[in-house]
């Protein structure tokens, strides 16, 4: 389960604009591939109260991973698009990581 800060830049001192909430599970026997089910729940500015939903495969050791945006709520109703995920830092001892998500989305 995840409930992590969603910030403007890939560091914890950046302004928080929401939460990344959902879960991931191991989905591959050959490599580290995860099934990601995640909502970006916005709590600031124009998008306050809106969400984007991501569902897809995350090949963790690929430098840039792409996953689909399958929907959203409020200002992101009928959203479609994709996110590109890039790992900035990872601590293999604690399992903590800082991931940058660039979101490309079309919505009404």
| Stretches with pLDDT under 50, minimum 5 residues | none
Total of helices: 0
Topology as a string of helices (H) and strands (E) = EEEEEEE
N-to-C CA distance: 30 Å
Count of the separate structural domains: 1
Shape: globular
Q: Taking Cα atoms only, what radius of gyration do you get, to the nearest Å? A: 14 Å
Main pleated-sheet profile: 7 strands, antiparallel
Give a short overview.
The chain has about 110 residues and is mainly β. The protein has one domain. The protein is about 0% helix and about 65% strand.
Describe the structure in your own words.
With 108 residues, this protein is mostly beta strands. It has strands at residues 2-7, 16-26, 33-42, 51-59, 64-73, 80-91, 96-106. The protein has a seven-stranded antiparallel beta sheet, with no helix packed on it. Strand 5 and strand 6 form a beta hairpin. The mean pLDDT is 93.
Structural features:
64% strand, seven-stranded antiparallel β-sheet, 108 residues, globular, mainly beta
Topology:
Elements: E1 2-7, E2 16-26, E3 33-42, E4 51-59, E5 64-73, E6 80-91, E7 96-106
Antiparallel strand pairs: 1-2, 2-3, 3-4, 4-5, 5-6, 6-7
Protein name: Dirigent protein 19
Organism: Camellia lanceoleosa
